[in-house]
């Protein structure tokens, strides 16, 4: 057993037959996974596929993904057996039955709300493509409806897991299967995704992505016992590169996770500065570690208040790794003109977990960086990275909207396909300091040219001499 070794995942007084009944139903029908048509449309490029990232507010809805038909939105779904649902509820203790009735009613109502939202999104898309309404207002309406539908999808995922804890619902299980695969494809490894993947494995589902998702989400959320069991159950050729690294560094990952959780318990989070990014994927809220990285946080807040990040692309979004922004040139070399003293060696400095915000530095290759070369570029990690905190300053973390960060369009400069149409990256529409926090010292800047000379003299880098 994987998920249910954790007592928090199961109501001890729930009927033991529920999961066996669900498993039998799934064997008969789970392969007909919930083809709602929601994911492709909701995950399509937001308005702006034909324009630069700085013109996202006025650009048009994309043709990247064709809108689903009515059948695609609500057709072909595995159906629940109302009699079995009612019978299961009738056999429950009263308090659990009330919970089950409430959550199942919410599951049904959210499905209808999600369907309505998806159809509205499709309507806007069709009207645009048919030249009925190509106005700026239509573009804004498309984006707003897209974000609403995305949020409903995530809400229904959480509700489906709650239903699956208590009731033999193939519809909930089917939705979980679809969404876990979607989350795996887009590096969304939250606690709900972990539980969904682990529960599906427990009832005998054998998709490889379920196992890899359970392991990655387990590592991201502190469920290391499950992650170990999953990796031990897989053959080496079933692991991807990131999973090989996770398996190799599992003990260190667990140690760093526990240290970080202990550290966060001692911090008054209500006093931490917060920055809100409005992005092309929706809002992202970040809290900043002003106590452990005061210079870095002060610099970041200054840049936000100066409007530096407004309209800035996420110039790199690398699968299983990170989303990077803050580069005004878009080619990896951009900066603000000022460079920061490193703070990764400060007392109580933070480790890099899923959602951590880390200052990018000038790379030297082989995982090494020029000292004190952080400026304006920052990365948000999709998964924990054991080596980051020994080289780079971790100065914050995403506390809301990490699913939106993970959903951003992949843009990996190391992999180019000239035959493939290159759609524009996602971007920060605006950045705002929504909580200033305690008074901070002035940022501590350095002479980066001196740092480059030091690295060159030490034989760490070789700089090109301009041709005469």
TrEMBL record:
Could you tell me which PROSITE patterns the record lists for this protein? CSA_PPIASE_2 (PS50072)
Annotated region (Disordered) at 44-80
User: Does this entry carry the keyword Isomerase?
Assistant: yes
User: What's one GO MF term for it?
Assistant: peptidyl-prolyl cis-trans isomerase activity
The record's EC number reads 5.2.1.8
Sorted UniProt keywords: Isomerase, Rotamase
* Biased composition, class Low complexity, residue ranges: 49-71
Q: What InterPro entries does this protein's entry cite?
A: Cyclophilin-like_dom_sf, Cyclophilin-type_PPIase_dom, Cyclophilin_A-like
Q: Which residues form the PPIase cyclophilin-type domain?
A: 282-435
Q: What is this protein called?
A: peptidylprolyl isomerase
Protein source organism: Rhodopirellula baltica SH28
